[in-house]
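Minutes, methods subgroup
Present: GH (chair), OT, SY

1. OT presented the first of two proteins processed in the latest run. Sequence and structure tokens recorded below as shown on screen.
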Amino acid sequence: MTEQQRPSIAAHAEWLDRTFGRNHELVDAVIREAWAASSPFPIVLDPETRTIDATVAGYVPGDGDLVPSDAWSLTRLIAGGAYPELGIDGSEWHSFVKGLPTDAVLLGRADSTTAAETTVTVTPWQGDALSLYAAENSLRRPLATILERARTLGLPVDPRLDDLPESTDLIRLVIPDAAAHEARSDRVIGTFAVVRAASDLGLTIAAARNQLRDRGLHYDARLNELAADPPTSEELRLASVNGDGMAPWRSAEEQSVASAAIAATDFSVAAPAVLCAWRRLGIGPIDGLVDGSRWRERAFDSVDTLLASQDLDGASPYRVDDVETVPAAHQLDTTIPLPLAQVAILAVSLKEPRRSIEHRLATLGYSVAPRGAATSRSDRIAASRDNDGDLPGHPLDLELSPAVVHVAAHSCTVEPGVTSAMLRRMGYRVAHEGILATLHTRHHDLLWHLIDGPAIEWGRPISPVRVAQLALHLGWSIDRCLDTLAELGFTAADPRRHLPVDRPGDEDAWRALY
């Protein structure tokens, strides 16, 4: 396309985003053309009155959203002319990396791509071998090309990745299944994923394992056992949906003691044999079976696992685990009483009497604050960290700041003084200074948008991009946002001080100044 033929509007964000999932190479080619253009290449954002010059900013799916998602995007979009109302001049910013649509894969801003006529779920980059092969699976580009772009974006890259061999059909099959199942972390390939893929491709378990090992991919240790002692035809039969030892296979994540009982009946075997086969093949976690250093020493149920968990959500780490397996930051101090409001939240969630919950907590080593009853919804909202009446609650060992009180007051639609008294009655320590007598309309307006966004990081400053997002949502100046946040007790980073951010990898550089 010649410059004379170029239309005044070159592309629409909505079309670019919609097309990306089906043909990311085409969308990349459009933006690479924009990079090379000698005159503006305007892209219409949302709302349609807003445009950016892709010659300056490039484009990444999501740039058309109402507000930018990160500081690098904010930098590019300001420089490209998208947000004049912020009053930030980006005309002299020339050092930032322009955006490419396929950056959305490395940054986790795309849900999926289409590769070899298959929809591939995107896995955000973490700089390890799993990230590299997941990106290859989404983009189908040489590993060296992916690594070069990751480094350009300032993302972490393990230097050992440069020496890894290209991907294979097996790797592409198991990478999306890297949710670990019963392995130690979500960076581990689940055993059953390898069993299924090897069977589908006609490979031995040992050959499949070697492909993972040669590419620096971590896998569950039981895969070595299966390589030495391959699955039997009976085990594969029990792992298949139709009982024939072939695809379709059972989901590794959605099995339970109940589904094992059903499979046992369907295939005329004993239920323990089904569980034994599933566990050897790495199918799990099996709902109803809980591993842990002490769980096998006493009778327990799902309510006990909930009450014994660090965040009272049923997930590990558990208070009954061996102390040396739990990081110090995750160890519960059982000398600090658990506020009754958190007990009330548990009682509502579990549909059990509060006294029953208190008794169970006591048997697990918790003490409960012996203060007045906390059964109202306002009590539960005030006690919850995300102000939604659900767990987790506020930390028990820290003084609650004025900002916490103001957000709780807004969520409970009461004055801050009422909220302070409520929290103290429930056993929390609350700041005595800096709490407003009343919340005005401007406070409620800002808090509504603040709570509606990403979870508040209590004890940390509001990020520069979050301040800009609030200004755009509210139609306020940056100064008004900063002043109102300060009134509410928040520390906030001024985007005018911390922009430009040249690469996504520099997103958190501003934190070093606070």
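2. SY then presented the second protein from the same run.
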Amino acid sequence: MLKVTASNKQTLFTTMNTLNTKGNYLEQELLPLIKTGNWKKLQNMIIYHDGIISFSFKDDKWLFIKSEFKDKSFDNLIFQESIDSKIPILYKANERMFINEIKCIALACMYFSSNKLTLATIAGITLSLRNMARMLLKHNISSFADLTLEIIIEMSQLGYDFYSKNIFRGINKALALQEYLPFTMKLEKAVTHKQIHVQHKKPEQFQVIPFRIYCDLLNYGKRCIEKAFSELGYFQAAVEQYQKYIKSEQEKRIKQLRHGSVKLNQSELKSSSVKSFLKALNTEKINFIDYGKEESWQTLFQQHRVTLAMPSEPNITFLVYKNTEMVYKDFKNHLNEIVGIASWLCLLLSGMRINELFDAHPIHGAQTIELTKNTNSSNSTQMSDLETIYLLTTKKSKIISGSQTEDDVFVTTALGYKSFKVLSSVQSPIRNRLNSNELPLFVSLHKLLPTPSGSANNKSKSFGQFLSSTLRKLNKKGILNLTLNQQDIDCLYISEKTHNWEVDNLFSITSHMCRRSLAYYLIGYELCSFPALKQQFSHVSMAMTRWYARNASSFQKM
């Protein structure tokens, strides 16, 4: 049962029971339909009603934030989104069955449980259930009624992720409330990690980037991107020339290797991609020196994304900007830096996740819309003006002003928008050769920035490693100073309360710190409200948004 204040409790249950003029609406009308699983009749049943808003069972979002119901710990209940918040659990019968079952469990928690639960707690239970439902669907299970301990153990052995501390929270609550549910659980007792022989992972604590380092990275990034964006035509032409040269040199070296005129060097032999390629050749019984006879040789080479070493001193220069030429080595380093910095700015200035940026659409990933704003003129009359809003998005099509969008659009700044455009531009030569604009933004990181020591098997991990190496190089050059001083330590104490950093430690920035830092500084500077931040981050619950921005009120006092 909902844990509410006395005034809220009287208002809530009195109002709900007025829906039944003969008596108790919850017990006499709603509960019987829940217990029998009468989905057809349940669809139009009111599950919450007050003077402002009503929710029906068929509604997939119960937005309590818009209702009269207020308490110290309340939240919305969301049912139609997966844990990824991008893939609706809709449309198919099995998916709809899980949604209906989760709604019944939520109602049992709200109105019939002997334990008093806050809406925030119930939101956590539904989140756990949706996460579990997603995995069960992949395992061809269509109802919580079919779940057994043996199935969970089997799924764990097959690699399903049951490491989250709260993964079993929802099904255990369903087990405790099954007398109010339309199905009988086959589980005999609450499920624990110990029963399936796995240990739950402690949640990773992402820290706020200290303010000095945060500002230095943004300021240096702005100088780099403004320069690249202002002369993007020159920069893109240089990248095209660079890619053509690499392709020519790689083809030349492949021919030499296949005819035995040169050998793989030590750097290449240490590469994981080369090792896997050589193993594949051996498996297929194909000679490394095949004199160009085996068609499968080239196919395997491409499948394993092998990148070979370039000549030690390439005799080529690039016109990077209108009045700037660079030799091969300098341009390669500059390109690495621009791609890394532009990626960091996209993450820092939007709250996108690293995989969302990696897979973004090269054309539609950065967009603008024009919105009308009202400004007061000097004679106090209202006049309309247009304001440009910059957006980064995972959508694959154009956003139209005023249209409804899924939670996959991130408001950014002009600098974030320009950073994305630079990233898209430097990738365009590769997309043009592949003759497709429907490929993701980073269609081929290993082709854009070739290195014989890299592996592209895990794209997001490789991308994250590349971004980290960008900052380490800038620190080594003295462009950024990632060594913590006492001011940085003080900032970390304010944002984290406790930490293990010390003065003179080298601060390691990870991509997910960008989301935490953006939330912290937006709330700390009072530039954004919690509801707006929740939408920006596509969070299911307000509790998660508040967790990201935790301790921001302390920052205001600095």
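Chair's summary of item 2: Residues 4-11, 82-91, 401-407, 450-458 have pLDDT under 50 and may be disordered.
Next meeting: continue with the remaining queue.
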